[in-house]
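Researcher: Please translate sequence to structure tokens.
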Amino acid sequence: MKICPNCRRTYDDDGLNFCLDDGSVLTFASPDAAPTVVMDYPRPTSSAPTAGPTNWDARDQPAYPVQPKKRSKTWLWVFGIFAILILVCGGGLVGFFAYVTSIANSNTNISRTTTTNSSKTNSVSRTSTPNPAWDGAGETQAVELSDWVKDPTPAVETDLEGDEFFLTSKQKGYFYVLVAKDDRFSSSGISRVTVRNPNDKAVELGYGLVFHSDTTPLVNDYAFLIDTVKKKYRVVRHEREDETTITAWTSSNSIKDHGGPNVLESRNKGDKIELYINDTLVTSITNKQGPKKGVPGLYVGDGAKIGFKKLEVVK
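Model: Translation complete:
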């Protein structure tokens, strides 16, 4: 088996010499290479009686360390081949530079389009209260974050200080996702969490709320992320561990900095999802093809220690 030293993609074909994503020279993978780090969730506990079946799915759930995929550089190979053909066939330097200009302009347009248009089982506590953001009274369900505290691992560590759950990633350039394993937390209404950056550290990938998620992380979900140091937010979507930008980093005065708490909230409105920071609507996204409902979760990246409280859904 061969592996790309740049993007770490592996290939079973030992006759392949170059990475199909970025063109790097492939090397033979070491048979002793360390496996991807995962973190199992603790088994369920119940702090309140619930209706329905009592035999919950208690399979452990991992937290996935994932590095956002780099853009493919296949066009560089195509460019090189065509450039050689133009020169050999007598097109001359004028034709060659005209082709270079055409390719450069085309790639610039593609990049702009991509950036601009990329729009455990847990115990549960329930309350039934009116919510001004929703039509009528809704049942609020809170994920018990203390159930997610485990011993530190090489990739991520967790801790509980009072009622605040801390999730710390240890690798820059990677993000980590935890989601509720129990389908009882699945909601098509409101998802919210209170998030805090106690060390006031800039985080390139951000941190915040995962919503409308499958109970398996990064299979199908959205994430609403902030960076309190730069006072910016962004929205991404995950499909089979592939992260796509829906809303690029955008400034917002609604974000509290200097380690202050920020409440992130998603409100489902049919084919549209409204996203709020501290009860202020900052953006909305269309949702004609994305997940219509799902469980909530947490996202943290770039070696940051982030505190979370009140991970809830309102049905």
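Researcher: Any highlights?
Model: The two ends are 48 Å apart (CA to CA).
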